[in-house]
């Protein structure tokens, strides 16, 4: 089985992540053990802030995001607010001591990346975690707000993906051999487990498929095939037993009801009406606020994961979502 290419899909929901103290403690232990063993692969504080262009985006952002959450600062020389925000982000990145990496992208020199992220104005700040992208904020932001956002980002990386971050050595040479962390020890293979999950899915044993994929992800949180399979199995599990006529009637009568629109979007996607599912949830994001809006946004991003980031419908919907959010 060949996993899908790492891509900017399935944005992680920061607001919805719940506490998982054991996972966090495990991540902290891993960081401490790395430091105790001499900081193999340690980077200089100067290497925590990097300039990135389109040619290096896959290696410098997508690949590095499997080690550490990558914050992306979209800026331009002519942008006055950027001149205030960028130094603050750089200072905080160094202060977080390897728990985040800051990638600075000049939008004038990298128009394609700006378009891919659906950016309408700068400064704009995104993050990529385990190959998955999410918007953080756009425009000016205070230090307290930024700290809170970064704390949530670190929590997501640790608890959901097991990202322990980078080991930092103040004595390391900037740009030295430690700039690229040593590759993690290989885990798996999981072909047998993944095949069992597929068989359970094909036989209609949705609960078994969900558990099988979760078993893989418990040991290998970044496994892309297991993440995709889990998203598909959970979607089928959600629609099992629903009354389609009742669900669609509720959605038609309650256009601003988050739960009603989410259920209808699930049915849309299972029925092959991908654009209808995406459009329904994007419209609901624009109509709702607070927890309801977060719930709709999270479900939309989960459906992106099911369809796949390379699909043109996902690319278009992600841009529409960014416009609805900002």
From TrEMBL:
The UniProt record lists the Thioredoxin domain at 21-155
InterPro entries, from UniProt?
Thioredoxin-like_sf, Thioredoxin_CS, Thioredoxin_domain, TPR-like_helical_dom_sf
Superkingdom in the source lineage: Bacteria
According to its UniProt entry, this protein's organism is Streptomyces fungicidicus
Gene3D superfamilies, sorted = Glutaredoxin (3.40.30.10), Tetratricopeptide repeat domain (1.25.40.10)
GO process annotations (BP): cell redox homeostasis; response to stress
Please give the name of this protein: Co-chaperone YbbN
